[in-house]
Specification:
The complex is a heterotrimer of chains A (407), B (333) and C (172). Chain B has 333 residues and is mainly alpha-helical. Chain B contains 12 helices and no strands. Chain C has a single domain (34-159), classed as 2-Layer Sandwich (Alpha-Beta Plaits), CATH 3.30.70. Chain C is built from 5 helices and 5 strands, in the order H-E-H-E-E-H-E-E-H-H. Chain C has helices spanning 8-15, 60-64, 105-109, 135-140, 152-159; strands at 43-45, 70-79, 86-96, 115-117, 132-133. In chain C, a hairpin with a 6-residue loop joins strand 2 and strand 3 (86-96). The interface between A and C is large, with 49 and 44 residues.
Chain lengths: 407, 333, 172
């Protein structure tokens, strides 16, 4: 396959286009008669994945211009973080990316640890990796199902796929419930480690669940590997890797366009540097490639958890006296400090930039860099020229979580 | 006398059809639930058998909201027209040698094609009258789809007509007596014709994988987006009945109608023929619709039309030619 | 495309599920869902081993609550009728479940294991006031069989198995 070198990143040459659609297209210039139909998709639409509102200018069924509107789920989390202490914040950011709450907690905790120079013990690091991979598995399972809904409808084959994947995702949530007592608000991570230790026999049930889910993955492929699915996904929504890099998109969407980038391997955190991570990369750039990447990532997550689950070292799960008191996180430095730390969430690079005020237990500024925001910003570039049905599929294949976009 | 009898049968069969449609919703829900590892309706009545009644009661209480900008008359009347048209299709289905409203109509199959083709009209009108962009898109898709799929439907429906030499539903069944069901005999054209006819019927009745006019993940509810309460139910029930009648037509045209497999071995009595065989065949073909519906994704509208014009119409034309040659050479008609 | 892409794979895959055990659970009036050991929903205030109200009114929970749903009115230090020593008391304690995140941070910081969570169903009410747990309701929730596993001392042991419970100290 021919590749191009763009800024030090080699990308598949055939995906690189000379121009992209113009997101600021003047509709009156485009069509002086202005007989385009403005179609408002969302915020209440079955397949805008939450409350995304997309304004489409359609010529028949072909989209001419696409304008996403955000902010319907804005909860002021970042501002809230400035008022809360480092210990309280993980319990609030759970709801950012409501499909993978563990990742949100992990992201902010890692930034706070970097800022406050807190040591995380070995056992906590391994548990973090394990729950992160389990969460990735759960998140991708949900994605396969909801994407099926986009293509097959809630009352149809998509609904069946959706319920099948939810059935398996439930098992992962059960594991988390065993571990933390919650199915959604885990509040498991805390700066310096974990708040909960593993319950007895948890490792065994994890292995059982993994075997079960691994056996069910081929069934999803049975349901999707057919000509209808191919017709709907193959060659649909091809994304230029250069555009992806310009917009800062990462994660499975970037990997499906041939960008070999994964923070778990390229900037390892927790104990990812100890495992041999195989990063799935596809060069199709279309919806089908994104499906393949996510299916491969699920298998990779299962493999990683299997590698780690037996070798969780004994010891404490919290590094220092972190969790006892609201103001217990103490700074080593007396000056202002800042830290940025990023993890590979199921959707891409989930980063937290935090500025710490001296002698205060809460951050002066806490900026969360959600991967979904960048995914949504792709829409105006890739939607023009596609049909309404395809826009639904493309939007689903990007897998943006609106709670994370709006925060 | 004969007219009065037909009228009575029509009233009975018509109301029965509504009941069967209501309970086939239960059957579909149970079936789909099992495909998805769920129990399905269990609460109302034994194994949820009274669920359709409860649903009906609930839906009857719902307010019928008519959008201010809608064309009120057309908005309200289109579901009724759709339901009436679909029920009219039942008229020519011969349920057994004796049961049936107008099974002896000499243009029975033509009636089905004609009225079935008309059914796109209430759909389209419902979408247009809603004054909703999604409904309008659904209506346009529905029109394009129905008009296109009408052609291969008719052409593949011609195969049993050629084989039986009649448009009359009774005679088509009679021509299949003795196990010469058109789905199996002549080997090849019959089965292919059934496949084509069945596929096109799925498209005509807006079922997955061809349910793009009301693709709820794209168009919310398609033509039914604005229809609430009972008028929405009637619109959807009409589609449901359309699927049911499609299954019945398939059973009549390709599976020997009321003839049971007992007749192949020279048996007589209830194993050989009767109303129950027809009902059984209809329900099995109907369940096949669910099975497909709950297993497959849906096509895009342009792919749908491409399938029709690129593959189904040439295939059905070729099939018709092959059948004609078969009839001329082998059967010597 | 060299592959055949058969459509019946999907049909077989769905039909395979017909024989599988059903995963959805019956409605609550048939059987209650089995709760996990660490399940947490609503709150209780408990008495200590001497039979006194365990809450000393230190307001740690009020301080740590991220959504500020806890309201404690400290009663000041009095002589305990049981031990005769001076200790703190709590005059009023309100917990508003409407905004509670169920993060169990209040349980975690409690130095006396006074506030605990229950492995019971989340209460439902007909009005917002129904979900505000007053002190009386919190003490009425003290059901030994339904108390969740976590308490302040459990968490203290997880953090620091050697030192155990640390005395409360002021914000740095």
């Amino acid at each position: 396959m021919k590749t191009l070198d763009i800024g030090g990143v080699s990308v598949p040459a055939e995906l690189v286009k000379s121009s992209w659609a113009d997101p600021w297209l003047d509709i009156d210039d485009y069509d002086a008669e202005s007989d385009l139909m403005a179609l408002n998709m969302g915020p209440q639409h079955p397949s805008t994945h939450g409350v995304l509102r997309v304004k489409l200018f359609v010529d028949g069924e072909i989209c001419v211009k696409c304008v996403p509107y955000l902010g319907y789920l804005h909860r002021g989390v970042e501002k809230l973080c400035e008022k809360l202490t480092y210990v309280q914040i993980p319990s609030v950011v759970d709801k950012n990316d409501y499909v993978s709450p563990m990742m949100n907690e992990l992201a902010v905790c890692m930034a706070f640890e970097k800022l406050c120079e807190i040591e995380v013990p070995e056992r906590a690091q391994v548990i973090r990796t394990v729950v992160a991979e389990l969460q990735r598995l759960a998140s991708h399972l949900l994605w396969v199902g909801t994407w099926g809904l986009d293509m097959g409808g809630a009352i149809g084959g998509g609904g069946t796929l959706f319920l099948h994947t939810f059935r398996e995702r439930e098992l992962v949530l059960d594991l988390f419930e065993d571990l933390t007592g919650g199915r959604f608000h885990y509040n498991h991570h805390t700066p310096g480690g974990q708040r909960h230790d593993l319950p007895a026999g948890w490792e065994a049930s994890v292995k059982q669940v993994l075997t079960f889910i691994e056996g069910r993955l081929p069934e999803y492929e049975d349901m999707t590997d057919n000509r209808i699915f191919f017709a709907r996904t193959k060659g649909v929504g091809v994304i230029d890797p250069v555009l992806l890099m310009e917009l800062g998109v990462s994660g499975p969407v970037a990997r499906a366009s041939g960008i070999d980038h994964d923070l778990r391997r390229d900037a390892p955190y927790c104990v990812y540097d100890r495992v041999d991570l195989r990063v799935p990369v596809e060069t199709g750039g279309d919806c089908y490639a994104r499906f393949l990447v996510r299916m491969a990532e699920m298998r990779e997550s299962i493999r990683l958890v299997r590698l780690l689950i037996d070798s969780i070292p004994p010891g404490p799960v919290v590094g220092a006296k972190m969790v006892k008191l609201p103001g217990a996180v103490k700074f080593k430095q007396k000056e202002w400090g800042s830290a940025y730390s990023a993890i590979e969430s199921p959707r891409g690079e989930l980063g937290t930039f935090v500025i710490g005020e001296p002698k205060k237990a809460s951050p002066w500024r806490c900026k969360i860099r959600p991967p979904s925001y960048h995914l949504v910003s792709l829409l105006p570039y890739i939607c023009p020229g596609e049909m309404i049905s395809d826009i639904v599929v493309i939007l689903g294949s990007l897998d943006p979580i609106l709670g994370e976009v709006d925060r | 006398m004969s007219f009065a009898l037909s009228l009575l049968t029509g009233v009975v069969l018509g109301s029965l059809a509504m009941f069967v449609a209501a309970w086939s919703i239960w059957w579909e829900r149970k079936f789909a639930a099992r495909l998805q590892s769920r129990p399905g309706p269990t609460e109302v009545g034994p194994i949820g058998l009274l669920q359709p009644l409860a649903d009906g009661l609930k839906l009857m209480q719902k307010e019928i909201i008519i959008p201010r900008a809608a064309d009120k008359l057309l908005f309200v009347i289109s579901p009724a027209v759709a339901a009436a048209g679909t029920l009219a299709l039942f008229a020519v289905i011969p349920w057994s040698e004796t049961v049936g409203v107008a099974g002896d109509l000499n243009i029975g199959l033509l009636w089905i094609f004609a009225v079935g083709a008309l059914l796109v009209l209430p759909q389209w009108v419902a979408g247009w009258a809603s004054n909703n962009k999604y409904a309008l898109l659904g209506a346009m898709r529905s029109a394009a789809q129905s008009v296109s799929y009408e052609v291969p439907l008719l052409l593949s429906g011609m195969v049993p007509i050629l084989l039986a030499g009649s448009f009359q539903m009774d005679e088509i069944v009679a021509a299949q007596q003795g196990g010469r069901w058109f789905a199996f005999w002549p080997p090849g054209p019959g089965a292919l014709a059934f496949g084509l006819f069945y596929l096109c019927s799925l498209a005509e009745a807006n079922r997955i994988p061809f349910d793009i006019p009301e693709a709820e993940s794209e168009l919310i509810g398609g033509v039914t987006t604005e229809h609430t309460g009972m008028i929405g139910v009637v619109l959807q029930l009409a589609e449901y009945l359309h699927t049911l009648v499609t299954a019945a037509v398939c059973a009549t045209l390709f599976f020997g109608g009321w003839e049971g497999p007992g007749a192949w071995f020279g048996m007589e009595g209830f194993l050989a023929e009767g109303l129950h065989w027809m009902v059984l065949k209809t329900l099995v073909l109907f369940a096949l619709v669910f099975w497909i519906r709950w297993s497959w994704m849906r096509y895009r509208s342009d792919q749908l039309l491409k399938i029709c014009w690129h593959y189904l119409i040439p295939a059905s034309l070729a099939l018709l030619a092959v059948t004609a040659i078969w009839v001329r050479l082998v059967e010597g008609a | 495309m060299s592959r055949t892409l058969p459509l019946w794979d999907a049909l077989v895959a769905t039909l395979r599920n017909v024989g599988r055990p059903m995963v959805t659970e019956p409605l609550p009036w048939h059987a209650a869902r089995e709760r996990k050991d660490r399940y947490r929903a609503t709150f209780a205030l408990v008495h200590n081993e001497l039979g006194e109200e365990a809450c000393i009114g230190c307001k740690m929970c009020e301080k740590i609550c991220p959504s500020q749903v806890i309201d404690v009115v400290a009663g000041g230090r009095k002589e305990s009728p049981v031990t005769g020593k001076k200790r703190g008391y709590c005059d009023d304690f309100t917990l508003d479940l409407n905004a509670c995140l169920v993060c169990e941070l209040c349980v975690q910081v409690c130095p006396e294991d006074a506030i605990l969570m229950l492995r019971e169903r989340t209460p439902v009410g007909f009005s917002r006031e129904d979900l505000v747990l007053s002190m009386d309701r919190l003490y009425a929730n003290e059901k030994p069989e339904a108390l969740a596993w976590h308490s302040g001392s459990v968490f203290a042991e997880i953090q620091d198995p050697e030192r155990g419970l640390t005395p409360p100290e002021e914000d740095a």
